[in-house]
Amino acid sequence: MTVEELAADCIDVRELNRKGLLKERTLTFRPLLRWPQVAKMRADRYVIEVNFRNLVTPQYVPLSWTPCHFGNYRPWMLCPHCRRRVARLFFAGPGYFCRACIGHPPYESQLRNDMARVYLRVYRLRQQIGGGRPVIDPIRERPYRMWRKTYHRIRTEIERLEHSLVGSRIIRRAPTWIRPLNY
Q1: For 98-117, how does the pLDDT look when each residue is reduced to its tens digit (9 = 90+)?
Q2: How would you class 51 by CB atoms within 10 Å of its CB: exposed for 0-12, middle for 13-18, buried for 19 or more?
Q3: I need a surface site. Which of 46, 67, 111, 176 has the fewest CB within 10 A?
Q4: Cα–Cα–Cα angle for 96, 98, 101, nearest 5°?
Q5: pLDDT at site 29
């Protein structure tokens, strides 16, 4: 299992905070598609309670907050097993745990050779501007609401990396092992 595969079913405290679920009052919500084995989640400013469909005992995930330099606070989850401060907890059997507790799974790029890593990098950059297969498809136009400077930086990086991919064998085999990013 890679981190990208595990990320399909992870709790990200940044996502919960963006949605406004980590407030002073307790909010209960039923996650439908994002977490299939979770029946109900309850969140407030200091703890997240996760009730599973097939377990009687809920899992409690404590939260801590650190101040940012320009005001406001950033939330962190404390791993229920090792109490490490993390942003994401991954599902592993009986509950959600940090990356270290589930055995440090590798990232997708760590399992690939140099040329496949370049292809994977180009593929991820193309996803940022709207998709397409590296070298084969033309680079898409600037997406709506993306800064021109950002688009030109990504585009020049894609062109630089694709120049080394032209004529390599990885172009024919790559679509069979690349999965879209889940996080």
Answers
A1: 999 999 999 888 988 888 88
A2: middle
A3: 176
A4: 100
A5: 72
